[in-house]
Amino acid sequence: MSYRITLNETADTFEAEAGEPLLDAAERAGFPLAHDCRFGGCGACRVKLLEGQVDYEEFPFGLSEEEAAEGYALACQAHAQCDLTISATLLPAGHIPADFHVATIERLEKLSHDVTHLVLRIPTASEVDFHPGQYLNVMLDDGSPRSFSMASPPNGELFDFHIRRVPGGYFTGRLETHYKPGDALDVELPLGTFRHDADSPRDLLMVAGGTGLAPIKSIIESLLDSPDTPNIALYWGVRRAEDLYLDDLLHQWTRTLPNFRYVPVLSEGDDQWGGRRGFVHEAVCQDHQDLSAFDAYLCGPPPMIAAAKSGFSQRGLSVERIFSDSFNFTHELDDSVV
User: Fold this and answer.
1) Which residues are in the 2Fe-2S ferredoxin-type domain (predicted)?
2) Which of 25, 159, 229, 239 is least enclosed by beta carbons within 10 angstroms?
3) Count of Cβ atoms closer than 10 Å to residue 87 Cβ
4) Got the DSSP string for 287-316?
């Protein structure tokens, strides 16, 4: 049995077999729906159900209950139960196809007790004008990838990353004990749909958890020289003060950028910490009873993303204006982080 899926924006149609994810069916028919992780974690393949119903083998953690109640579904996991009409985003016209390159480690330096600043030189990618917010894959010897977001805007041959050491992580552990400047890595880039909506006039609410700061930083830095830079509020949530590995830089931005606000939040702050405590999304909700004027960009672990989506939508922020990148989903790899 198959079902007819109609794209509302173009009236194009394609067929989806019973039990087939909508994303797979769309790609098979030649319609490149926006997507990223394919495992229901990132939310990039979100579509709006205008007619019909879907179900899931398991409800995806990248979709909040509020989004589902408003008729949204994740195409990578959703199965049609009948003919559907959906509103969906195709890959943008400026989408840059990913390609494989050889990178050389330019620099390795500690940013904190468990975060390394990695700089890669990729000469063949010097013309790859990736979108701030995107990521690359480091390909291991067995062909499996490890995903890391670029932490700065396009900069010729040089690419910046913030990499947190994961206990037991194969690549992140070897980054401290095995790799050195001059070593070569096989990489694939650019990847991901997380990026700033330059057509939106709204103020920006940026919420990062841990090294989820990396793509947020890339987006913010890409906007700093614009004469129309919007107001930006950055909330950065970590466990302890020692985890605020770019705290000095972000405080410097608050002194030099009139439209930038920075709020660090600790979930396990000690007695010496005089700043905000708790979960980062709670700090946002404490400061803003009405979020309807913002675009929100969220990057961090799945529980943070889910809690933020729920709390922010309850304060008037449309789910269509919440953009997220969940960094702990890909293939259950032990050290795929942002």
Assistant:
1) 3-92
2) 239
3) 15
4) H-S--TTEEEEEEE-HHHHHHHHHHHHTTT
